[in-house]
Write a structure and sequence with these properties.
There is one protein chain. The protein is built from 4 helices and 12 strands, in the order βαβαβαββββαβββββ. The protein is of the alpha/beta class. Strands 3-2-1-11-12 form a 5-stranded mixed sheet.
């Protein structure tokens, strides 16, 4: 069983409250727009970190993290990229990747809109944790926490960190 904390769009701000929600997690996954390499370093210092760079991330983060990342977590095939869209409205190229390589879990950020939805066409679960930072048009900062147990993805929790200015 692997407990995951999923975060995105920190844009250079990491709320201390993240730690109380991610303390029980085995890994942290960041779906892009870290904002600064310091945010990535803070996350990686606490838990094993997987991440992708986002459209606002500079050359320092682009050297550390790829644009797209695929890996196996237990028996679940995972695909993460920052700009991904969602079922029925995928970003260019994502649909072809999902069709070419079976994926059970597709993760992205960018929109600042929290979404968890199943894509019946590609037989995969889509997750976007929304935005945990203060920049953007979202009104509530959010995270996701969930468990991968063998081939099951379960116990998904939406965590609200408060308003964008809090």
């Amino acid at each position: 069983m692997t407990r995951i904390g999923l975060i995105s769009d920190t844009h250079g701000f990491l709320d201390e409250a993240v730690w109380k929600h991610f303390d029980t997690c085995d890994e942290i996954w960041h779906a892009g727009d870290f904002g600064t390499a310091d945010i990535a370093a803070q996350l990686a210092a606490r838990k094993p970190l997987k991440g992708v760079y986002g459209n606002i991330d500079g050359p320092d983060l682009r050297r550390l993290y790829p644009e797209k990342l695929r890996w196996q977590c237990e028996e679940v095939s995972v695909f993460m990229t920052h700009i991904g869209g969602y079922p029925g409205k995928y970003a260019p190229g994502v649909r072809a990747e999902l069709a070419a390589t079976p994926t059970q879990l597709f993760l992205c950020g960018h929109s600042h809109i929290l979404k968890v939805m199943y894509d019946a066409k590609y037989h995969c679960l889509h997750m976007n944790p929304g935005a945990a930072g203060r920049q953007g048009w979202h009104t509530v900062r959010t995270l996701l926490r969930f468990v991968i147990d063998g081939k099951e993805i379960r116990d998904c929790e939406v965590i609200e960190l408060g308003g964008r200015s809090s």
